Request: fold
Amino acid sequence: MNDGMTLDDGLTIGRVAKAAGVNVETIRYYQRRGLLAKPQRRYGTHTRYSRSAVSRVLFIKCAQHLDFTLDDIAALLTMNGTQRCQDARSLGEQKLATIEARIAELCDVRSHLRGLLAECARNEQSNCCPMIDSLTECSSVPPCGVADPQIAPFKTGAAAKGKDGAAVPCCQD
Reply:
């Protein structure tokens, strides 16, 4: 279907969004954040975007897929000159370290959950549930020495002690 618009006429915000696989509100949000320039509106016409706007949005989405925040992406978009690759590499190394720490934390969570599930399987005939008991015990004391359990629930670190002096199961060393 041709509605009479050529590529030279530019793209509407809807077409940019569709081409990039995002919502129109995402385009507007990126503009408010300064990640995407808003093109000049010609008098009496709709705002038209160049094809480079689609590339910019796709760049943002690809960077988000690599877990870069919008602030990180803003920094990446401003990198230029000879320092460009070094700066991008430094930001990437920081991101990788964060991801690796999160993976380690998730491995601890997985291990703990597997243990609870194994206890549940061993106690199928019992009226008590090791998982619920563990979560109840964990919620009754500040986790891992944190004074306010609502600030940092289920954080890992040095084991907190329950009422009976035993380590609270939600905390891992």
Observations:
- Residues 1-7, 149-163, 166-173 have pLDDT under 50 and may be disordered.
- The chain has six helices and no strands.
